[in-house]
Amino acid sequence: xxxxxxxxxxxxxxxxxxxxxxxxxxxxxxxxxxxxxxxxxxxxxxxxxxxxxxxxxxxxxxxxxxxxxxxxxxxxxxxxxxxxxxxxxxxxxxxxxxxxxxxxxxxxxxxxxxxxxxxxxxxxxxxxxxxxxxxxxxxxxxxxxxxxxxxxxxxxxxxxxxxxxxxxxxxxxxxxxxxxxxxxxx
Length: 186
What we know:
Elements: H1 2-16, E1 23-25, E2 28-30, E3 36-38, E4 42-45, E5 58-60, H2 78-82, E6 92-94, E7 97-103, E8 107-115, E9 120-124, H3 125-131, E10 134-135, H4 154-166, H5 172-184
Antiparallel strand pairs: 1-2, 2-3, 4-6, 4-10, 5-9, 7-8, 8-9
């Protein structure tokens, strides 16, 4: 019975929170939020999401001659050595190429290649959008899963008013009035 309930709840959550998978068709990548990326598109850089302000999801292209691959140098932090610098925040770069990595079994990650030929960078598009490293139109910003805005239960509300009564903020009469109001909510 528990297995049936688990499967049922997973199916229901899939219905209410469908995942939109990025699609790459006809040289255009449509991200999970519906934003379309193609060669020649100008992408505006946001702010880096690493502690120092550098970019976590925009980094030196893996095939670039400037890609740093040592795991012992640069304090063992190759990703930080390859990260796009915070001084690039607010700049605009043209997409030179859309690249796909991965496979059908494990999934795909889509990258946009930007740069000037000598120094090339790749943008993990999905994560850069989610983290704010790319600035995209508001209608394409990730939507949070819809949740009940007031997720506070009746019991949470009752505890709050009980605490207010115990601390002397509410009188017994006010407490009873608020309690009745909470208990009549659906």
